Amino acid sequence: MRLSAPIGRQAMAFVLAGGRGSRLMELTDRRAKPAVYFGGKSRIIDFALSNALNSGIRRIGVATQYKAHSLIGHLHRGWNFFRPGSNESFDILPASQRVSETQWYAGTADAVYQNIDIIRDHAPKYMVILAGDHIYKMDYEMMLQQHVDTGADATIGCLEAPRSEASGFGVMHVDEKDRIIAFVEKPKDPPPMPGFPDLSLVSMGIYVFETKFLFDQLERDAADPHSSRDFGKDIIPHVVQNGIAVAHHFARSCVRSANDGEAVYWRDVGTVDAYWEANIDLTDVVPDLDLFDREWPIWTDGAVTPPAKFVHDEDGRRGMAISSLVSGGCIISGAKVRRSLLFTGVRANSYCDIENAVILPYVDIGRSARLKNVVIDRGVKIPEGLVVGEDPKLDAARFRLTEKGICLITQQMIDRLGA
């Protein structure tokens, strides 16, 4: 990890972490999408925060809004190591009606606007605006350097995406120098890239501005009664039309796995299917996302846990895990675990058979349960002998079954079984 970055030290990262994430269904009933668990011990927001820290940025603000208790608790536990005496800061910025007694954060731009006074106190020269709900590794220093070199008013992180999937993003068209000449937010019919009819160039929700320029834009936007107070819908289109907006291609700053020098990794885990798939992919022999990279670590809450434990060694009752990630505090007690990801403190009791499972912290799986293609929410107690993943009709009647056959299980669903 690079401990300092010349431009990064002049920047502040502002992470937008107030999103509902409703497509994750019951996983976001009690927590915002950035607080959803990922990768065995992390939360989704840890990726944007770790990118900022690893890029040399030491001033970070996180704007929270929707069901923020779990997220705020995680940030307090895992991100409390910044040193104000060394010009470092970490601010948690809940929607607190700072501008108006009746107004929460009205949009992504408004979330920054309502905290202008706090940002001004830190006096950063540059602002890096980040979404807190994507999985990727990126060196923001390279994007900051491009912003300075090109003299842009705004630099926007972008990546190529299938045109069929681009309607959920801001889509841009650039010239030969990567200047953005057109930008439309979430179009129903996304325009293709020139020469690539099946691809669109989409925004990652990552923006770089000089702080003074950003403040001017936010104040102008706040005075516009017709604005929706959103970066993608209002701020960026105005800069494209009236200033200089430049695209930064993710491929230039993606922190790649040491095992694959070409592939870029970015995931929006916004559905249960996408969430399950991205977690299960980590069990591959050589996954596209390298969580073992000591040069670009993913920082998170360093919970104190005992080692994982595997017990019993007899036919039919052997504690074992194959092609799986098993976190600290787990006990595999005479159970078989295959191609699964177990978060902290999971207990799998004797004679269980678990396959293709994403199991969140402190789940207790009763004896002889058979679980396949599941996501199990935190703290669920699975009854003895429960079978999931073998009868889709039965699963759909009891739990949340996705289009791709993944079964989401919560404690409330389990409680209804005995009602």
From TrEMBL:
Which keywords annotate this record?
ATP-binding, Carbohydrate metabolism, Glycogen biosynthesis, Glycogen metabolism, Nucleotide-binding, Nucleotidyltransferase, Transferase
Q: Which residues form the Nucleotidyl transferase domain?
A: 13-283
Q: Pfam families attached here?
A: Hexapep_GlmU, NTP_transferase
- Describe the location of the Glucose-1-phosphate adenylyltransferase/Bifunctional protein GlmU-like C-terminal hexapeptide domain by residue ranges: 306-409
**Pathway(s) served:** Glycan biosynthesis; glycogen biosynthesis
* Name of the top EC class for this enzyme: transferase
> Which reaction does this enzyme catalyse, per its entry?
alpha-D-glucose 1-phosphate + ATP + H(+) = ADP-alpha-D-glucose + diphosphate
> Gene3D superfamilies from the xrefs?
Hexapeptide repeat proteins, Spore Coat Polysaccharide Biosynthesis Protein SpsA, Chain A
Q: What EC number(s) does the entry state?
A: 2.7.7.27
Positions of the record's site feature: Could play a key role in the communication between the regulatory and the substrate sites: Q65, W104
Question: Per the UniProt entry, what are the Gene Ontology biological process annotations, in alphabetical order?
Answer: glycogen biosynthetic process
An example molecular function term from Gene Ontology annotations: glucose-1-phosphate adenylyltransferase activity
* Protein residues bound to alpha-D-glucose 1-phosphate: Y105, G170, E185, K186, S203
User: Belongs to which family?
Assistant: Belongs to the bacterial/plant glucose-1-phosphate adenylyltransferase family.
**Function text:** Involved in the biosynthesis of ADP-glucose, a building block required for the elongation reactions to produce glycogen. Catalyzes the reaction between ATP and alpha-D-glucose 1-phosphate (G1P) to produce pyrophosphate and ADP-Glc.
Q: How does it assemble?
A: Homotetramer.
Q: What is this protein called?
A: Glucose-1-phosphate adenylyltransferase
Q: Which organism is it from?
A: Methylocapsa palsarum
The gene name on file is glgC
